[in-house]
Write a structure and sequence with these properties.
This protein has one helix and no strands. With 35 residues, it is mainly alpha-helical.
Length: 35
């Protein structure tokens, strides 16, 4: 039970962070292609 809560908490915390990281990485690579 406690392990499930830990997994849910880590998904809620890391999910948006990973999404933001990949969004920023995509923008960065798009900018590099323009140069």
């Amino acid at each position: 039970m406690q392990l499930d809560n830990l997994i849910v908490m880590s998904n809620n915390f890391f999910g948006p962070a990973i999404h933001e990281f990949f969004a920023g990485f995509a923008k960065l690579s798009a900018v590099l292609h323009l140069i």
